[in-house]
Fold these 3 entries.
Entry 1:
Amino acid sequence: MLRHLIRRLGQAFLVVAGVVALTFVITRLLPGDPAVAFAGPKASATELAAARQRFGLDDPLWMQLVTYARDLLTGDLGTSLHTRQPVADDLALAFPASLELVGAALLVAIVVGIPLGIAAARYRAKFQDFSVRLSTMLAVSVPVFWLALAVQTVFASGLRWFPVAGEYDSTLDTVSPLTVYTNITAVDALITGNWPILTSTLHHLVLPSLVVAAYPAGVVAQLTRAALIEESGQDHARMARALGFSQTEVLTRFSLRPVLNPLLSLVALVFAYSIVNGFLVEAIFNWPGLGRYAADSIRSLDIPAIAGVTLLVALLYVLANLIVDLLQGVIDPRVRRR
């Protein structure tokens, strides 16, 4: 297990180094001058020179890359040209809101997707299977922005069952102010017993989390169905049926566990994908997460902020895959020999 851990950490380090270099190159290829974005379009030549010197834009590219990597090791992602605050501080405020949204969405996807996959495998080639395959195909295929606008129009603007946008009712900041510990509103409200804000946050969370959950729920259900059908044809499943176990018991007790490894890998990939996929959802529902921060950064040509968001999302992919690799090594010792 130790060798497996060291090997995976080494691979993750190489991937992160490549991501850092690629992020640096991409930010340098973006159109526009960061010095102008920071100092303003009416800045004098002296002010522009000072801005270029501050951000090291006059240094050779290799020296800028070395400086960029050195600053990253100390947690310095630069200063936002838009907010004039450290990018790391901005991300520390925006990321928890995205994590709250995606975490709720993945919980819904797992709770809904796995039972649907089991039901489809149990009633293979029957009406239930056809219904699950059709619904999951639609969930995977429908553009997320269209789905977000549709549910917002129907359930928020039309039926008025849920709020149109926002993270919680802003009037509660005066009536029942929230004490912040984690910057995840639902968690902070639960920790401090702030039930009005917790109730309002959960109410606001329903529609955007369901929209973000649509794609991962469909993929989880499809993978679960396909993997269970394959496993149910193995010798251990046939033996269980010969011993008198029902098809449902064979699927849930004997075939589901081997499916956990591919499901873990899928959830890791879907988690990082949902962070990015949620950007449009956050913009539509005015959710104060990475999506809104990234949109503001792109509009203002805030290169340090754009690089910070890009690097954070890439690191999430690497971290999620690393965690899954280690968990797979614990669940199935054969994985450690790969």
Entry 2:
Amino acid sequence: MATIQDIAEHAGVSSATVSRVINSSGYVGTETRKTVEEAIKQLDYRPNKHAQMLRTGETKNFGIISTQFNDTAVARINSFISTAYSAGYTTTLFITNGDKKREREAFDLLKAKELDGIFLIYRANEWEVLESYLKDGPIVTLHNVDTHPIPSVFIDHYEGTQLALNYAWDTGCRRILNIYGTASGLNTERRIMAYNNFCSLKGITPYASDSFLHIVSDHDVDRVVQWIEEQAVKPDAIITHSDNIAALAVSRLEKKGYKVPKDISVIGFDNLFISDVMNMTTVDYGIKEQGSNACRLLLRQLGKKSDDLVPLTFTLIKRGTTKNTD
């Protein structure tokens, strides 16, 4: 395997000049750079990544950890990867399927200095377990951890849920059903609180939240639609926790003969591509910017230059699955 010294001898330059070309550091004249690059190509030189890591103390690699690989995770992952790439970092993705041991094994790579930092999207372990790794390197998470020391790119879904509820109300809906994702998630807790507070303010009876927790698959949506079928007085609006679940709800309801939004309105959450394709009303909250902000936070903790964090806000995107306010 060719070495830097071999390249220098072949190109007729010093090893220091070759090093500057390889590492893009320091000035090298245009013609000299071309000569060195040609020597690198001819000798098929491959940088020793392990040696570089030992020299700099950096892997230039971030870990991305998630329990699942759904569309909302992918939107954040893609924007994180793009921001990391622009900063000269690669990324390694770990999907744990909720396995606590697998998650800890991924975090052990931070301890072993094989990762420079971690973006944790959805977790399996308790915060106390994950916090023990903070001494090994920076960690950023998706969800707010309140008093915990792990930085977060969280945006409070209480406000977004209130936005959707108020719009459903303004379009004439009075029997509004909220369906939720992961039962133990902070977003779910905030959505339930927003829903109950809204119903109390409007003087309407809420549907029991416990019956509509963990609606995350087509079978779960089928169960909700079957429940609607059995009701003498049916909901006139459904607010979901994701665009994918909203799309399933629209599809299943229409197969049963319901007209959306004439019979029942449906509001999604995320503003992913599918909501545009299916012309669904949804709540946008900068989901892609969450991934970019997470990478920026890691870079800052490592003392690297990064763009400012982008403020996240909720915006209702009005489309065809809700009535007009006219």
Entry 3:
Amino acid sequence: MNEAMTCGVTTELALLDAMELAADPELEGRFTESAHRILADLVSGGAALGWIEPPARDEVAELLGHVVAAAQAGDAALRAAYLGRRLVGLGYWLRYTRPTHRPHADLEKIAVDAAAHGRGVGRALTAALIADAREAGVEVLTLDARGDNANALHLYRSLGFTEYGRLPDFVAVGEHRYDKVFCMLDFRA
């Protein structure tokens, strides 16, 4: 577990997986609402999470339900980061569904509450998801990021991901265009 400072008090960062989250009815009951708040706030602030407008609560609930079901089937991993009883981040990967791509997974999303940025939450979430992928027998973990998301790209590189491709000006946000950067972590090497 990592430690983080909250209001001058050291608090332990807990990284729960989908099964641990389900084992705590109070946290599980608040998880979707808390995850929606984090995602909507980040997207409202311009975060590169795949949405142009903040997602609706029902959309987040459906997404998380899909990820949890996939995790229970061994086809995904979900991690929820808590400082005390407060959700401060979440992330997940999903195994590719095509039979020829089954040994591989895509790190779909890492989202950290803006109030917790700079405290190592994103690093801890990503490292835990990498460990989950190794344990699940994933051979190659991929991800894509918006080219202007320098902090995320730096984090991924520092954890061993390498860039394998880039689509210039592929992501359209209003009048702005950004590169789509593809990265991979090959566990076979």
